[in-house]
């Protein structure tokens, strides 16, 4: 498994990263991490050389400058600069050692979170796909130089419905005119595209960024909902049918848990749920691949995406309120 080019720690980590990049399942990802477990010696790098460089460089520089009675010669300055350069090299070596293992560990943990939550990458980040999404949903018509940064597909198995969805991460730039800064701000927005045939032509909006509401704006009977959201549609009948007290209360709860939440129900029966929260964020597992045997145990256990699962659970509950084939309680229960 190991050869003359890869038997360094850096080389082994590169092997692990290459295998992880090609993994298509949790099992293949575990096999990638197992490469590190098969390495015959510890993965923790030897820090002796960089530490010696740091300490000796600092001492030599101090001696050269302090021994000059406050008036260092050109030679003393030259020696001190060489010594400090050695110290900086030592610091850079330590940072490089830490950076490689941390970056690879985070990548593997992120991939594990995808596999653990039934997510798979698909080719959906093209500019043509973004144009298509902008045509269908207002939330993608925001900022300047927008691009789809990530595209995943997944399934959520609820008690009543199975929700198949696409997850997008949008990167866009908020105009400097809309900020107090002199230059545009880089922003990210997350969204789920879900088949939702029970509601059409409705826009529930809390985020002021992006295009305006639908032609008909509707004030509901819920002050809490009205404080957070603007409800609009293409007709008063559609807005009235949508504004069920229990569902409005549920959406208001969603708005307290997710930042700048928008819900747009297209004319074709597709729902776009968009928000600022990083729903792909996972809890730091607290170790890196350097502790390889503990690390592989964590990967085998799987990594949760609590915000994504919470959003899907609450969206599933929303489907129950509008699917007339099932009875739902008149007041919301805990989703």
Quick recap:
The chain is α+β, with helices and mostly antiparallel strands and 335 residues long.
Write the layout of secondary structure elements.
Blueprint: H1 9-21, H2 26-37, H3 48-66, H4 74-116, E1 120-121, H5 127-136, E2 144-157, E3 162-174, E4 185-195, E5 202-205, E6 216-218, H6 223-228, E7 230-233, H7 236-242, H8 245-257, E8 262-265, E9 270-275, H9 292-301, H10 306-322
User: How many helix segments?
Assistant: 10
How many β strands by DSSP? 9
Fraction of residues in helices? 40-55%
Largest sheet: 9 strands, antiparallel
In whole angstroms, the N-to-C terminal distance is 49 Å
Q: What ranges have pLDDT less than 50 throughout 5 or more consecutive residues? A: 326-335
Structural class: alpha+beta
Give the C-alpha Rg.
Answer: 27 Å
Q: Order of SSEs, N→C? A: HHHHEHEEEEEHEHHEEHH
Inertia-based shape: elongated
Mean pLDDT figure? 83
With strands numbered from the N-terminus, the spatial order across the biggest sheet is 1-2-3-4-9-8-5-7-6
Beta-strand share of residues: 15-25%
Give a description of the structure.
With 335 residues, the protein is α+β, with helices and mostly antiparallel strands. It has helices at residues 9-21, 26-37, 48-66, 74-116, 127-136, 223-228, 236-242, 245-257, 292-301, 306-322; strands at residues 120-121, 144-157, 162-174, 185-195, 202-205, 216-218, 230-233, 262-265, 270-275. A hairpin with a 4-residue loop joins strand 8 (262-265) and strand 9 (270-275). The model is unreliable at 326-335 (pLDDT under 50).
């Amino acid at each position: 498994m190991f050869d003359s080019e890869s038997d360094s720690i850096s080389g082994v980590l590169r092997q692990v990263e290459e295998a992880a990049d090609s993994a298509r399942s949790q099992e293949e990802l575990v096999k990638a991490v197992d490469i590190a477990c098969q390495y015959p010696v510890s993965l923790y790098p030897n820090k002796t050389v960089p530490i010696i460089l740091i300490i000796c460089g600092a001492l030599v520089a101090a001696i050269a400058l302090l021994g000059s009675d406050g008036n260092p010669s050109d030679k003393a300055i030259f020696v001190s600069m060489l010594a400090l350069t050695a110290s900086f090299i030592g610091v850079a070596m330590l940072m490089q050692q830490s950076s490689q293992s941390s970056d690879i560990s985070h990548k593997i943990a992120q991939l594990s979170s995808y596999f653990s939550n039934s997510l798979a990458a698909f080719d959906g980040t093209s500019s043509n796909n973004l144009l298509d999404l902008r045509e269908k949903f207002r939330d993608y018509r925001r900022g300047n130089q927008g691009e789809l940064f990530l595209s995943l597909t997944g399934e959520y198995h609820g008690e009543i419905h199975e929700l198949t969805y696409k997850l997008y991460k949008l990167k866009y730039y908020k105009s400097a005119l809309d900020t107090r800064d002199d230059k545009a701000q880089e922003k990210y927005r997350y969204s789920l595209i879900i088949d939702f045939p029970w509601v059409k032509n409705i826009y529930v909006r809390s985020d002021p960024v992006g295009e305006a509401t639908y032609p008909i704006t509707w004030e509901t009977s819920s002050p809490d909902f009205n404080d957070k959201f603007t409800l609009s549609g293409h007709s008063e009948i559609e807005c009235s049918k949508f504004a069920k007290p229990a569902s409005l209360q549920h959406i208001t709860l969603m708005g307290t848990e997710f930042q700048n939440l928008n819900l747009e129900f297209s004319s074709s029966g597709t729902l776009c749920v968009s928000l600022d929260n990083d729903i792909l964020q996972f809890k730091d597992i607290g170790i890196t691949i350097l502790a390889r045997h503990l690390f592989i145990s964590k990967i085998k256990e799987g990594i949760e995406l609590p915000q994504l699962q919470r959003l899907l659970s609450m969206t599933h509950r929303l489907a129950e309120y509008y699917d007339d084939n099932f009875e739902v309680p008149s007041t919301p229960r805990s989703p």
